[in-house]
Amino acid sequence: MDIVEQIVSGNVRATARLLRDIDDEIPSARAILKELYPHTGKAYVIGFTGSPGVGKSTLVDQLATRFRKEDLTVGILAVDPTSPFTGGAILGDRIRMQRHFLDPGVFIRSLATRGHFGGLTKSTNDMVNVLDAMGKDVILVETVGVGQDEVEIANSAHTTVLVTIPGMGDEIQAIKAGIMEIGNIFVVNKADREGSRKTIRELRNLIELGAKRRNGDDWEPPIVETEAVKSRGMEDLHEAIRNHRSFLLSTHTEKWREVLEKRARIQLMEALREEAFRTILARMEKDGNSFDLMVDQIVEKQSDPYTLVQEIIAKEMG
Ligand SMILES: Nc1nc2c(ncn2[C@@H]2O[C@H](COP(=O)(O)OP(=O)(O)OP(=O)(O)O)[C@@H](O)[C@H]2O)c(=O)[nH]1
Ligand SMILES: [Mg+2]
Questions:
Q1: Fewer CB atoms < 10 Å away: N or C end of the chain?
Q2: How far apart are CA 10 and CA 135, in angstroms?
Q3: Residues linked to residue 223 through DSSP beta bridges, in sequence order
């Protein structure tokens, strides 16, 4: 069997190897991704985003267990984890996730680093595709919400879950519109803490404000109260996800199509950016007119980034 067949048949080692190659930006990974692509499109992708430490990993872990009860297979990707999931200080979560490690129906992978050129979801989307092709029914993607990342994960997922905790209403208020629009479901985790009700009220107000901008047939994001460590609220969250999926799939709207287009658009954009950049960079190196040389020119004020890019593109266009 070649590597594509191995991955499509769910081989964990072959999959892990490809993911590592993608992470290391090994060029041969592209060709495999290309061959895997026809096997994608079956998984349901759920993104979880929110500030560090709000409990995303704990929620993802609990939900994975919930999906396994339905006999659905689960892929988990944690992007740039700042606390132990599988990335940084491994131990705590290793223990917590052990039941999943022993379960062949769950594949977990964390990405501790970003792409060299700031491409965050570049490889995340590729990895989602790999897990999709591998046959995982549900893919849970965790990203720490820092501005742009939230928007990127929202473009990659079918359902985006925005996670907050009590007392974070103000923070949300401050970031406002952009963020509110990407959340299909809001979770107030750590509901055991004081102020949960208040945060829910604040979120409700913000969602209602946003409703004025939404169409009548649009999805109204529910707010789910959870205490992930005690598995409280998981049924509600699971149901909210299921409802959102049903909403997208309901036949009288174009919502599913919109989500497919949104995902295709981001993937095409990233592939284009990646390939164009790679191609141009390779040519620059070959010409001896390297990237580093231009960096020197900028530092020495002999030129500026804008002029240099114009020159590069002009040359590229022939
Ligand atoms: N009190 C309380 N603590 C919780 C709850 N859910 C998670 N925690 C704790 O909060 C801490 C952070 O949880 P994680 O799941 O690692 O949070 P995270 O959002 O994935 O963190 P990052 O990946 O670092 O952004 C852990 O010590 C959890 O045990 C909850 O419902 N109540
Ligand atoms: Mg985490």
A1: C
A2: 6
A3: 186
Overall average pLDDT of the 150-169 stretch: 85
User: Which residue range(s) make up the domain with 79?
Assistant: 38-249
Q: Give the position of tokens 């549900």.
A: 138
Residue ending a domain, among 198, 218, 249, is: 249
Between 163 and 79, name the one with better pLDDT. Answer: 163
- The answer to whether residues 184 and 160 touch, using CB atoms and an 8 Å cutoff, is yes
Q: What is the mean pLDDT of the chain?
A: 84
Q: Please tell me whether residue 46 adopts helix, strand or coil conformation.
A: strand
Cβ of 134 closer than 6 Å to ligand 1, yes or no, is no
48 and 133 together in one domain: yes
Contacts of 282 (CB under 8 A, 6+ apart): none
> Beta 223-225 vs 185-188: how paired, if at all?
parallel
Q: How confident is the model at residue 176 (pLDDT cuts 50, 70, 90)?
A: low
Q: Are residues 114 and 199 in the same domain?
A: yes
Kindly report the protein residue whose alpha carbon is nearest to atom 17 of ligand 1.
55
Q: Does residue 7 lie within any of the structural domains?
A: no
Q: Is the CB of 83 under 6 A from ligand 1?
A: yes
